[in-house]
Batch of 4 targets.
Target 1
Amino acid sequence: MDETVIFNRHGKSVYRVCYSVLYDFAGKPRGYLLGKTLFDLRGQHRGYYVDNVLWDRMGRVCGFMDGARVNGLELPQCEVPPVPYRNQPEPPVPEGLRELDLPGRFPAWSMMRLENLLV
């Protein structure tokens, strides 16, 4: 995955995935993908990125890529993302991270706002 934009439940662009790092549009790194598992910069498990959808730890939809599909859930139209600032250097990945299995997926929006997922 080179670069992908992740949108929230309202279709607003929030994060960009550049290889295995999630950046905000100010160019600040916010998290890591290890396989399909999402971690914040402290190494805390925050969710999963599967089938172009960002799922929270409980298997509910937190964000999505343009063109994603979730059976049973209507996704909003995506807004045009802003022009990103230059990315800050990629921070070191915390040691001991391991890929985790996604529990069952539910076609419902998460209580967690995408903007708050990696704060």
Note: The longest strand covers residues 13-18.
Target 2
Amino acid sequence: MLLFVILSIMKDENLKIIYEEISELHRFQQSGVDLLYNKLNWILVADLVFIAAIMNTTQGSTIATLLASASAILVLIKFQPQVFKNTAQITSQLESVDKLNFLESLIKKKKEALNSNKSRIDELNTVMFYARILLILAIGIQFLFSAPSLVFYLIQ
């Protein structure tokens, strides 16, 4: 009987450690999502400023404008509010606090939230990658398009 009590206490302590680690991972994941949205916001601002700059020049490249516009559209599509999976609500946690498998169920909910949110974060990273590539291509093409005028200006 004493062995069962000791094992039960050890299991509870281990579950608490696991819960704390998963909770910390979830917090880091949420801050990572915030950082991703911040980066997407900066890409969108860069796209719009670049498009405005191209529109104000006489040497604007249509292809560069289209690429920057595609990048901005891609970012705007992903700026839609997405619901990231959270863990169990506090009220439901309080209702089940007396259950024997309370910590196990909390850990399970946190694990589900982490896995669900990971796929959304991967999707945001992919969109951000393509938006960056489109913007880099737009800047490069605009540079190549205006390079002859720049060389001509420097020669005179």
Note: Residues 2-155 form one domain.
Target 3
Amino acid sequence: MLMKEHKVTKTCPNGTKYTLVFDGLYYWTREGNLPIKLQGRFSCQIEAYSAFRFYCSSLMPEVSQVTGAEDLEELTLKKDLTQWAEKQGIEIPNKVKQPAAIKKFLQEQVNA
């Protein structure tokens, strides 16, 4: 959909809405801070939409490669710790969110 003087709103996978505005150049706006990847002005809509798609693709979660055989002490990333716990059949409580807290919880479960 090409536009000249009206606004187009798009939503990222995380639910945040961004508006593409034209005032001689195209630019993204939203309530609050704009991500660095969407800052600046674009000479055409295609560039603006490409930047938006690139930004949205960067929000996709990375997949852990943990198999469950790794040593718990070597794991530091939240995605790896939660994958390790899943492979071990350990459920992490919702209140435990930070990687260090997850690791401590898992150590307590393993050493219990």
Note: Residues 72-111 form one domain.
Target 4
Amino acid sequence: MADREKVMQWLETCANGCEDGCPYEYKNLVYRVECKADLMSDALELLKEQKPRVMTLDELIEIYIEFKGNAYLVRLTMFDLQKIIMYMDDGICRLWAGKPTYEQMEAVKWE
């Protein structure tokens, strides 16, 4: 499985002329073609994961919910969907597709 953070770091490095080093740990510039091929393969894998697909049970039960005014996340494994929808409609909580960092939570404004 492709490492999303590594792919993002490589894309930034590549966009800056590959001067800060290669996250794929290719030390020699001769191997840049292989490095870019690995990047394209990993990026394609990540893009394919975004296509609509049937979710696994693990994905369904691992939901991260943030409550307004609280600086922590609750990982729900058993939940009442109607209550979550009610809390979302009231603006009390919001759901994240994955576990966000505290910086990400602070950066996204509550609506």
Note: Residues 88 and 94 are 6 Å apart (CA to CA).
